Amino acid sequence: MKYKALKGICDILPPETYIWQHIESVAKEVFKTYGCKEIRLPIIESSEIFIRSIGETTDIVEKEMYTFQDKAGRSVTMRPEGTAPFVRAFVEHSLHNEPSPQKYYYMGPMFRYERPQAGRQRQFHQIGIEALGTDDPKIDAEVISMLMALLKRIGLKDIELEVNSIGCGICRPEYKTVVKDFLRENLEFFCEDCKRRYEINPLRILDCKVEGCIGRRQAVPSIVNLLCDDCKDHFEELQHYLQLLNVSYRINPNLVRGLDYYTRTAFEVKGKSLGAQNAVAAGGRYGSLVEEFGGPAVSGIGFAIGVERLLSLVSEGHNDYGPDIFLCFLGDEAEKKSFMLTNELRAEGLWVETAYDKSSLRSQMRRADRIKAKNVIVMGEEELKKKKVIVKNMAGKEEVETVLEGAEIIKVVQKDILSV
Ligand code: HAM
């Protein structure tokens, strides 16, 4: 083979693209009910945007960014996530002048130079939300509940929501000191990554996935007990609101997230069958990112769903997309009629296919079967003469005779119109 897609960067082919369309349209419907407006952001940004927000010592910035120089010598990066570009746009276009709170959604590809494996690509897709303009934990609960409502509507079952508070600029530095004090004596037993993180980003040791590190960090005190009063109240209120909305959750005190811009609320939804890369969606609150980007003191909260991981949880049983009708014909007159009828039925919103050559009825039927047509109509001299056809439902095998006219045929097959 002469050319292949780059490693970790995948083509998305039908019938999978039907599921993508379905997920995107359900997401848009759900977001609309929460007042989220769409924002379309560039795929490439100045590198500084990601370094400043995600954090210089995070895995994403240290190891995973697709960064290069453009022809003018500027350092640019293919976006590894959507929050930083969103905040850049929010400030650049003074969106804070719009009535608050404001809610936006975005969908599209993200790029991280990670080692490709199940659930981890170098180009992957996110559906994300950002809600800005209030510190009230009610909006945190609303954003989380919107995520859970969406995942439920898409049909996800075996998932678990984990929440935590990672404190603020006041209590988190103190917590970092506590963690470092606890780990100092045992540091030699931790993995190389953790040893490195100890100095630059010690809280990341709390969510290291290496077996040995998990056991050794058990004694570290939970951040939940060391939050400052404001963060503690915020976290308690968040839980109260989640309970009011009947959203089930588990507090995971080791949930610290891999991006530096978070303050207070952090959450992840884990798919129980997903293996090592088990977060299907994740997010949190960011208290000062807008200000750091030169905007006013406006805080935000958001999440991003990993579409590929979501798909790996729903793709079963969605492989039956096919035309609503396949029109078979026998003879020149019927060919002409079926060509016209195909056009007429398509104009009414049905997916209709017919043969393009004068192949035998048997081979037309075989094609209808292969492309999973829901209904088949056979048209020959007899049908044209009587002006009647039989619509055969392929799944139920029942046959209905109807008048050979678009409007009448639609009545018989209406129930099979594609919903994606
Ligand atoms: P994140 O946790 O880095 O958060 O990514 C969110 C989701 O993207 C993950 O839970 C996962 O499902 C998916 N994901 C991440 N990396 C990969 C990969 N290499 N391959 C496949 N899927 C992946 C963020 O990106 C934040 N911007 C979310 C956010 C929005 N926080 C506030 N607002």
Q: What do these coordinates show?
A:
- It is a single chain.
- It contains 15 helices and 16 strands.
- The radius of gyration is 27 Å and the shape is elongated.
- Mean pLDDT is 93; it is low at 416-420.
- It folds into 2 domains: 16-171 and 227-316, BirA Bifunctional Protein, domain 2; 322-411, Rossmann fold.
- Helix content is 37%, strand content 21%.
- Helix 1 packs antiparallel against helix 5 (137-154).
- Strand 12 (325-329), helix 12 and strand 13 (352-354) form a beta-alpha-beta unit.
- The strands form 3 sheets. The protein has an 8-stranded mixed β-sheet with strand order 1-5-6-11-10-9-7-8.
- It has 420 residues and is α+β, with helices and mostly antiparallel strands.
- It has helices at residues 16-33, 47-54, 59-64, 83-92, 137-154, 171-184, 192-200, 211-216, 229-244, 289-292, 307-314, 332-347, 361-370, 381-386, 406-413; strands at 37-38, 44-46, 66-69, 75-78, 102-111, 123-132, 159-165, 250-251, 265-271, 279-286, 300-306, 325-329, 352-354, 375-379, 388-393, 399-403.
- Histidyl-adenosine monophosphate binds next to strand 6, strand 10, strand 11 and helix 11.
